[in-house]
Amino acid sequence: MDDSMKKRQPDRRPISARESLFSQQAAHLLTKWKVTPNYISVASIIFSAAAAGCLILTSQKNNPIYWWLAAVFITLRLFANMLDGMVAVETGKASPIGEIFNEVPDRISDVIIFVSTGYAYGGLEFAGYLAAIASLFVAYIRALGNFMGVNKLFLGPMAKSHRMFTLVGICIYYGVFFMFCPVPSLMSWGVWAIILGSLLTFIRRLHRIVTEVRYD
Question: Any idea what the CATH number is for the domain that residue 58 is in?
Answer without folding.
Answer: 1.20.120.1760
